[in-house]
Amino acid sequence: MRGREEVINSLKEGLSISSADEVELLFLGKGSSLTRYANSTIHQNVKESNSEIRVRVVIGKKIGFSQTNDLTKEGIKKAVLDAEKIAKVTKEDPDFVKLPEPEEGKDIKTFFEENLNVKPEDMAEKVVNVIKRAESKNLIASGAFSFDINEYAVVNSRGIEKYQPYTSFFFTTVIMGENSSGYADRFSMKFSELDENSLADEAIERALMAKNPKDIEPGKYEVILTEYAVEDVISFLSYLGFGAKQFHQGTSFLSGKICEKIMGENITIWDDGLNPEGAPIPFDFEGVPKKKVMLIENGVAKGIVYDSYHAFKYHTKSTGHALPQPSSFGPLPLNIFMKEGTSSLSDMIKNVKKGILISRFHYTNPLDPKRAIITGMTRDGTFMIENGKISYPVKNMRFTQNMIEMLNGVVEISKNRKKQKGMIHVSVVPCIRVKEFNFTGKTEF
Amino acid sequence: MKDLSLWVMEEAKRRGVQFADIRVIENEVESIETENGGVSEIGRYRSVGFGIRVLMNGSWGFSSSSRVDKYEIEKVLSEAISIAKASSLAKKEYVVLSPVEIYQDEVPHNAKTNPFEIPLDKKLSVLLEVDKIMAGVNGVKIRRGSMYFMKERKTYASTEGAFIVQDRIESGAGIVSFAISSDGEVQRRSYPNSFGGDFKRAGWEFIESLKLTENAERVAKESVALLSAKPCPSGVMDIVIGGSQMALQVHESLGHPVELDRVLGMEASYAGTSFLTPGKLGNFQYGSKIVNITADATIPEALGGFAYDDEGVKGQGVYLVKDGLFVGYLTSRETAHKVGLKPMGAMRAESWNRIPIIRMTSINLEPGDMTLEELIKGVDRGIYVETNKSWSIDDKRLNFQFGTEIGWEIKNGELGDMIKNPTYTGISYEFWRSCDGIANKDFWNVWGVPNCGKGEPVQSMHVSHGTSPARFRNVRVGVMK
Asked: Do A32 and B457 touch (CB under 8 A)?
């Protein structure tokens, strides 16, 4: 870890080298450890120390990019000059207005010094505890336990100067029996708050329930999605439709539908990078403070997220959702919340006459991004519910489902929500009960 | 770099490791993306660093850093050793490595024209010219073009005495056209393949061979035509699959299931396991008799090819499926001996900061003896599909479902109307057993796939697939509601 002074000084030095009209330097520092286990043994255990600087220079309306992880004076100078050389040969971007100006933001604590004392053996010990609990039930444990110490910093020639250190842990487990499995994960910003025993017990219970699954025919079923499955859906909606680039180009399911009711009245989804219930971060990768953005409110399409480029282009303000530049995705929401309901998973099960409980999805992918039609498989515990009770586990099935239609048919939402880490974002989502869900295939296990 | 690498291997031996290796990688990427006549990205990205892998007390430890100096190398060695010791807290078996031949070698890149010596403005002008052609087609709403170039020097040393320096250059390019109807329907066409185009371990000569300009108008027109095309028919029928989609079919339904680490449960918590369990090796009919699939790292210019893998094993070619029978795995030194095989050189890491894991090399469906016309002629009622749009497969790699950008009906042996949103689904081995025709070597291309994801932290790997169009009987198509 380099610390605020060293990082900001390096970036400012880069800034001073450039003779371009505008310059931005983004620092991404990473100290990451990951302990991976399978077959109830640690088989991969890795550490990475890497820091890189991304440079964006603007000459007139020409923009050049470069990146380096050589943070010596010479390395940074080379990166800045690379970006300048590139900017000189590229074409003008008439939509570019300027880099963002400094804005007052909120201070948020995202770094917990106690975490720095965590050693590889401390992480291994928690993994061993998960393995022991699984083995006590004659089950096999696998999963991954990661610990990240990140540093983000941005400076630009308009006066932005931001630095934020960040620590976080993510612990996953898949517990497997002869013909069943169960999953659980925990995301936390403090090592001391990670309870590996509850993690193991959740996955063990699911794996035991899922033993000897039966074959059923695909078709339309009422379903309950746990928070893990809901996270997968929300993650895809976010990537396909909540960003300004997709919205304005007409490829988002929200394009042209702002202020229209597109989902059920009980569905409210927003992004809030400042909310401590999620994984807060005070500013985006351009140094613009995060703003809360309502995306769907009571089923009505309300808004999308912007970075500075798309905000200027479409005559609005950045909401603080820039990804590291250049970003072919444009801006994306990274702190997604879905409003809770009043129910619980056990109440939902009681309310189902005949339906399926889905623990988790696997390998979801959009078939038709504009209509949010997504396919994927179930995994790690799929169950038949009959007359208000889980009656038996079923083999995994393939679904092909329009997710907007699904969110129009949500009949129950849990009060409890779970914080979850996606590929690049964190979400806080409840369980949901859906009146109709389209299974289109099945598999052999 | 050589002195430091050899020094740290001696130091590792002095500290009593069972085995250690180091990879030092210097990498440079140039990326250009255009969109609707503008430049959305033009950049140069450099990365340097090293990773040390240590086997101690029968357990692995790995650490890596971007600061390449003697002090940091020694520190990282110490970290890797302490991580290996922590790993041994949860040890079930003592890791043993298969013995392999030890090499000292230097391998140059095989680009004929170094793409980093081609001026940026020349590259940009090709993409902007293509963009202009696509813009001339009525109804096209979004045009994109991209080029990617990578050069890398990888230095490998091990405590067993291996010392290998490999230079590598990769090039790739692609274009895509989107059409959007007045009611918001979106259709797209890509060339030469979706998700960035095609990629090879070659230089600027590969970009020139792609003939982007010559294909731009066709691609744009097809994207517009798709808006008024018929929907894909629904039902069980015969399907002829184009070469680039066959690449992904091979990738998902055979390439991943034969990764021996996955088979042995090492990927269980993330991407899953495999239906091709060790008991099936040599006695499971994976496909029909005409199906022959190899893993071959020696194919010239193949994106998944290399001279040596990331544990110093020489790149080679082996059969995975021979005359339809499942006969081989992708292996590592740690796993091969567990199923009675020799390491075949499939251990690779995304970069210096990742541990090597078993990855596909170039996984290839050997060409058959038919022409595409003959494949189509043999279908009374079915569809012909091209260019991947969507992919999904279960966590044992059995149930798959693919969507493609475009298709055509086949009626009485002839191509008919264009169809939109084609999809097809099946169970891997049932599907491959229904294969009754593969196009010949004139239709065969080695497609570069630069985004194969696996492992935690996730590693994106460059792999490739030699494929030609193929025909399958009684497949369920038109799954999308």
From this structure: yes
